[in-house]
Amino acid sequence: MPQAVQDLVEGSNIHVMMLAYRVLALADPRARALAADNVDILLGTLLRPIHRKTRMAAFEALANAARHDETVARRILARAREALKLPDKKYPKAELIGLIGCILAAHPGLAAAAERPVVYRHARAAA
Asked: N or C: which end of the chain has fewer CB within 10 A?
């Protein structure tokens, strides 16, 4: 099964790749492990030109891989931050930020200082 999924991910047909991304995005520990095993191929989807629907499915597969392992999550997060800097106006930046949010929700320790929530409170008056 893992080899079959890897063959699908590496396929040249967009529909075949879409099927692979959907399999890797399933809410199942086996799918998470497979997604983590194929993270090298999945990372390429962040920077190469592909159809929007396919990219969304790839984002889901990447989020699933990140939930599996913090080391994998760190790699995905670094590449996602690079993708945020792309000048392509059609790139789905809001969805990419959603992917980053999913990763940080699963692994809060990976958040940069600017990504950590700040809570402001009223100062108590001195008595």
From this structure: C
Q: Closest Cα partner for 84 from 98, 72, 70? A: 98
Q: Where are the alpha helices (DSSP H) in the chain?
A: 2-9, 14-24, 29-37, 39-47, 52-68, 70-83, 93-106
Q: Are 83 and 91 in contact (CB under 8 A)?
A: yes
What is the mean pLDDT for each group of 10 consecutive residues in the chain (127 residues)? 73 83 92 92 89 92 94 96 90 94 94 85 73
Burial class (CB in 10 A: 0-12, 13-18, 19+), 29: exposed
Is the pTM higher than 0.90? The answer reads no
Instruction: Give the list of residues 6+ apart from residue 45 with CB closer than 8 angstroms, or none.
Output: 21, 54, 55, 58, 59, 62
